[in-house]
Design brief:
With about 150 residues, the protein is an alpha/beta fold. The longest helix has 17 residues. It starts with a helix and ends with a strand. Helix content is about 35%, strand content about 20%. It has a domain of about 80 residues: 2-Layer Sandwich (Nucleotidyltransferase, domain 5). It is elongated.
């Protein structure tokens, strides 16, 4: 039988090296393939003359982030909640209470209080924000390294 197969096929063809090369090319293309998702990035141009201004609170909030800054020239602490600049800790407390109540009214899960403090801010200011959060009943407080 072995002699009979050679008589039918006068040119023997070894396909093993060809399969190996095709396999290597498939692996090469799979490794080099980069999928780019274009749907995740959409350009948008929002109007600046309409909508909610910095003085309005619109709940519910995606996060409750208090940003503390330090002005070295005046020695003053700058407090910010969202886009709103706050004068002192009593205003901060009332804004946080209002935001917490808005989340509870919308039946959303309670968000943690995030404290984002810039370098140079005195520890007393950061502890004051943590005390306000504890007094308002925030179950969780997180410390952030910088603005998102």
């Amino acid at each position: 039988m072995a002699g009979q197969a050679q008589d039918e096929n006068p040119l023997p063809l070894n396909v093993v090296p060809m399969v190996d090369i095709i396999f290597c090319l498939c692996v090469f293309f799979l490794v080099c393939f980069q999928a780019r998702v274009h749907e995740s990035r959409l350009d948008s141009w929002l109007p600046k003359d309409r909508g909610e201004g910095p003085g309005l609170l619109a709940g519910p909030f995606s996060e409750l982030r208090v940003v503390l800054g330090w002005n070295a020239k005046t020695g003053a602490i700058q407090r910010r909640f969202g886009r709103r600049e706050l004068k002192d800790s009593t205003e901060l407390e009332s804004v946080l209470r209002e935001a917490r109540d808005a989340q509870r009214a919308a039946n959303q899960p309670e968000q943690p209080l995030i404290l984002d403090s810039a370098p140079g801010v005195p520890w007393t200011a950061a502890l004051e924000v943590l005390d306000i959060g504890r007094g308002l009943g925030f179950a969780e407080t997180q410390l952030a390294l910088g603005s998102p």
